[in-house]
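Fill in residues.
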């Protein structure tokens, strides 16, 4: 298994491109299952999670061709051969559940393996299943699989009221509703930019959707959807760490393609910490204003709140901030697994339930650490950039699931970082 070796050094300066959003791409890809006609995605990120979704779609009989070194995905579902998503693929990635809505809507039947546990909490799929039921489907859990069956004549529009905000369940319901008969209203829907991107793409395919980006989305079902070409929205979770890099190390970095509206709450917290964020024609220009950053409190919330996917990286910044920062995790339980690793590097962190209190120290010290999940892995790299000496981040396969060319991008800014091949 590969590791990443980081040697803390001086300020970081330069310009880097930000990838297309992994989480958007993982919901745009299953949208191909809704139509017989081709769907082409441009600005796709090159990540192992995207390859896993490719394998899943191919296992259903879809054609998926990666072009332009993986940045373009040409897909076609004109001759699907299966409506069953097998455990072997689903267990690798929870987002596999996103094939449920499209398969059920187009074929009236789907079998999807339950994704199983996950390192950052229980993460059930009950909201996905309830949404399908609200559209008239019968759901049966047997042998570790969800067996979903639409009524004769297909899914029926209905009111889906989510008891809590779920990105994935909103996406599944939105896709399913595009082909359901009549009107569907999604209440307490997620408002993330990835949902808005999905709605834009579905509309290009012929879907009738309004209200995306608000908590009520309305869908008028149509008979069939056509093909489309769509450019994947910028990845705000790829953007965050590159904004934090100059905040932690000093310097000035321009993140090409970055936009404040994708990360308003995060930008506000950076501003309060003493980091300047300026939107330019090229993207976001980020610089640490003067000296050490100030400690700021963070509460993770659904969009437009502070994203849970940037909590670990923000904690890395707070480790060397001036003062005490309280970070509250409200989306997932057990999402502070990076804290003990940061403590190995000299950070002062107390975790009680869903709250972590970080007392800033002047400087961290390099150490061997373990990446426990996708977002934690990049937080440890950021901490290593600011630490004295060498940090080795082990188990970086997590990193490769969600971040494209991290070493190349950070090296281009002047960081001392390299990948060490595993034995
Ligand atoms: C998506 C993102 C993930 C991000 C998360 C929250 C993708 C591929 N992944 O995950 O990176 O961290 O949004 O912004 O887009 N829940 C239930 N029942 C369900 C579904 C969810 O109880 O059926 C709970 C979850 O356990 C969690 C909360 O709802 O506590 C929010 O989860 P959700 O928004 O569904 O996350 P994902 O879509 O899995």
């Amino acid at each position: 298994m590969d590791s990443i070796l980081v040697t803390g050094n001086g300020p970081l300066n330069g310009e880097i491109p930000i990838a297309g959003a992994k989480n958007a791409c993982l919901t745009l890809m299953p949208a191909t299952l809704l139509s017989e006609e081709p769907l082409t995605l441009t600005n796709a990120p090159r990540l192992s999670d995207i390859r896993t979704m490719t394998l899943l779609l191919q296992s259903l009989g879809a054609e998926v061709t990666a072009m332009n070194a993986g940045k373009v995905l040409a897909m076609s579902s004109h001759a699907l051969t299966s409506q069953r998503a097998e455990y072997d693929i689903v267990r690798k990635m929870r987002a596999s559940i996103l094939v449920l809505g499209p398969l059920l809507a187009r074929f009236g039947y789907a079998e999807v393996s339950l994704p199983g546990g996950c390192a950052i909490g229980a993460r059930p799929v009950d909201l996905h299943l309830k949404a399908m039921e609200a559209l008239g489907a019968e759901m049966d859990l047997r042998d570790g699989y969800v067996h979903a069956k639409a009524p004769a004549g297909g899914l029926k529009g209905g009111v889906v009221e989510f008891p809590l905000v779920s990105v994935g369940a909103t996406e599944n319901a939105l896709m399913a509703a595009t082909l359901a008969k009549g009107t569907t209203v999604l209440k307490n829907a997620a408002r993330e930019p990835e949902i808005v991107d999905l709605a834009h793409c579905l509309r290009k395919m012929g879907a009738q959707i309004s209200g995306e980006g608000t908590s009520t989305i309305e869908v008028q079902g149509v008979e069939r959807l056509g093909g489309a070409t769509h450019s994947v929205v910028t990845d705000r979770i790829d953007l965050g760490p590159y904004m934090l890099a100059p905040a932690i190390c000093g310097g000035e970095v321009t993140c090409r393609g970055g936009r404040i509206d994708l990360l308003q709450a995060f930008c506000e917290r950076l501003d309060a910490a003493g980091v300047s964020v300026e939107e330019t024609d090229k993207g976001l220009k980020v610089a640490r204003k003067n000296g050490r950053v100030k400690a700021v409190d963070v509460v993770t919330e659904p969009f437009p709140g502070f994203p849970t996917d940037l909590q670990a990286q923000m904690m890395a910044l707070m480790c060397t901030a001036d003062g005490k920062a309280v970070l509250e995790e409200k989306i997932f339980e057990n999402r502070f697994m990076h804290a003990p690793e940061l403590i190995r590097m000299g950070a002062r962190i107390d975790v009680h339930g869903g709250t972590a209190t970080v007392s800033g120290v002047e400087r961290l010290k390099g150490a061997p650490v373990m990446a426990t999940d996708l977002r934690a892995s990049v937080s440890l790299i950021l901490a290593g950039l600011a630490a004295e000496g060498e940090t080795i981040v082990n188990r970086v396969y997590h990193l490769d699931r969600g971040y494209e060319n991290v070493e190349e991008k950070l090296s281009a800014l002047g960081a001392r970082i390299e990948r060490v091949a595993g034995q």
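Residues 113 and 421 are 33 Å apart (CA to CA).
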